[in-house]
Amino acid sequence: MTTPARPGIFTGATDVASSGGYFGTTLLSGIPDLIATDVATANSAATTATNAITTTNANATAAANSAADALKLATNPVDQSFTLSDGSGPYYSALHYVSEGVQSTKGFAIAMAVAL
What we know:
Order of helices and strands: HH
Radius of gyration: 36 Å
Number of helices: 2
Largest sheet: none
Helix content: 55-70%
Strand content: under 5%
Number of strands: 0
C-alpha cells in the first residue's frame, strides 16, 4: 500500500524516494498536483481580475457620461436643445428655463404696466 502525497486533496501517491530533492525532501509525488492546483487558482484569480477591470471600465464610462449629462442639464445655452448620452431628448437646460421664466415675468410686468 502506498502513502498518499497529500491525503484527501491530491491524487499523486508514492512510497518511492527520489535520489534527492529541494529543501531536504525526497518524496516528490504530488508535486504535479500541487502545481496544477496553483495554476488553476492563478487562472481563476486572473479571470476574476479581468472581470473586475471590465466592470470598472464600464462604471468609469457611465460616470463620465453622467457628469457630461449633468453639465448639459445645468448650463446648456438658452434655446438650444440637447440629447443625453443615452440618446434620449431633446431637453433644455435649467439655465434655459430660468431665462424663460425671467422673460415671462418681464412680459407680465410690461403687460400690467400697459394695462394700468
